[in-house]
Amino acid sequence: MAKQLSRRQFLKISAGSAALAGLAACATPSAPGTGAPGGAAPAAGSATAAPAAPAVSSGKRIRIGYVTPQTGALAPFGETDAFITAEMAKIFASGMKIGDSTYAVEILVKDSQSDPNKAAENALNLITKEGVNIMMVAQTPETTNPVADQCEANGMPLISANAPWQPWFFRNKDASPDKPYHWTYHFFWGLEDIIGVFTGHWANVPTNKVIGALWPNDGDGLAWSDKQRGFPPALTKAGFTIIDAGRYANLKDDFSAEISLFKKNNVEIVTGVMLPPDLGTFLTQSAQQGFKPKAFTVGKAALFPGVVEAIPNGLGAGLTTEVWWSPFHPFKSSLTGQSAQQLADAYTAATKKQWSQPVGFVHAQFEVLNDVMKRAGKVDDKEAIVTAIKATNLDTIAGNVNWSKGPVPNVAKTPLVGGQWVKGSKYPFELVLTENSQAPNIPVTAKDVPMSWGA
Cβ contacts of residue 92 below 8 Å, gap of 6+? Predict the structure, then answer.
């Protein structure tokens, strides 16, 4: 019988990234050609070291607050942050030129501990006690939404990413295109995109079109299962039969009831939006109980190489998932000129780890922030910063970010494709791109195959 992977093992996957909390990057202005913003771009694939003779305008600084999960069940989302913030410390080592002045840059990173209440507390402290000029947040609705609420309530400009736009925008029941937010702005893809990607995967593998749904009782799960805006109406319209096991509690120890229900209804596709520990538990128990669907397409948990590698007996092989960013994306950084491949290579060189999707999006957040602050022209004028955010039209390493295009106020969409985990040559598992119906400009690199279930 396969050994079940413990929750503790999963939560240790990204424990090393916890050291990031509290990082502050103080920067000074660059000489022309050093590669910091305002000078020439550095050599692709590298960040520029601070110049020997800084020239920051006397006493001027910009403080950037950033809330992200460094520990807890969502820690794999924050695993790449230490690398990106260290790179930004180098890029902004000579300061950020805003208007006629050059500002030293401080990045204040706070660990949400994968807890919405802690995320909200950290955001409030950054706003009211740390005196930040602008906020950033990323990594799932459990992190982005409470931080956005604090920023909206306290008049703080926010650039948010890495959560589907529907659970972010509709976090407030009164939100609508006619009642947008004033201070908070988000860029990412939406449920309409991931539904297209997931159904694209399933078109590539012959099945009976019976789907077992694993949607938890959290922000993502409630949005994905929503009977108006979520997966159910779209999948039903596309001819799929949904076997919905109901909203389960995160960090669940026993999925026997769900597995029994899926077996009884001859489910050949499983989908959901799961935490990493829950994915490992479900896959292990499915194998033990003889439930082996042909396709397993899951959001959130299957994004990360460390999570897939930690699943026992090679059960991660064949998992399909959404891909927001990869080395194969045909985009480059507006800050450094790096291609997606060069950024991924730089991450691997610095960390000795396989690339992970948040690398590109957190980098893109700093691209957007740099562009916004330059156009705002003022550090302390929050209305000017908001006006600059709304006017953004920037090509980033994660794609174009343009809030004027919608789909609703406060939201800018970025492209989404799909991928599959296969046994790798350099790493135990590697993510290949297999589905691009929603973004044909991003090339596929392989074809979908059925789940192998450790074979």
Answer: 25, 27, 36, 37, 105
346: left (phi over 0), alpha (psi -120 to 50) or beta: alpha
Q: Which residue has the higher pLDDT, 401 or 19?
A: 401
Euclidean distance between the first and the last CA atom of the chain, given in angstroms as a whole number: 15
SS3 248: strand
25 in Cβ contact with 109 (< 8 Å)? no
More confident residue, 81 or 50: 81
Name the token pair of 27: 């920067």
Phi, psi (5° rounding) for residue 271? -140, 165
Q: Give yes or no for residue 56 having a pLDDT over 60.
A: yes
Task: For residues 329 and 332, give the distance between their C-alpha atoms in angstroms, rounded to a whole number.
Answer: 9
Residue 312, CA distances (Å) to 95, 281, 284, 308, 428 in order:
47, 10, 7, 9, 12
pLDDT tens-place string over residues 78-117: 999 999 999 999 999 999 999 989 999 999 999 999 999 9
- Cβ contact 44:339 at 8 Å: yes
Tell me the torsion sign for CA atoms 287, 291, 293, 297. negative
Task: Report the alpha-carbon distance of residue 283 to residue 268 in Å, rounded.
Answer: 14
Domains 7-189+327-413 and 192-323+418-435 share a fold: yes
Query: Using CA atoms, how far apart are residues 13 and 311, in angstroms rounded to an integer?
Result: 11
Is the model's pLDDT at 17 over the cut of 70?
no
Domain ranges of the chain: 7-189+327-413, 192-323+418-435
pLDDT beyond 80 at 250:
yes
Is 197 within 8 Å of 302 (Cβ atoms)?
no
- pTM (predicted TM-score): 0.86
Mean per-residue pLDDT, 347-353: 96
Selected from 3.40.50.2300, 1.10.820.10, 3.30.360.10, 3.30.420.40, the CATH number assigned to the domain covering 192-323+418-435 reads 3.40.50.2300
Q: Which of 355, 353, 352, 322 is nearest to 341 (CA)?
A: 355
Assess if CATH 3.40.50.300 describes domain 7-189+327-413: no
Q: Which residues of 320-356 are buried (b: 16+ CB within 10 A; e: fewer)?
A: bbbbbbbbbbebbbbbbbbbbbbbbbbbbeebebbbb
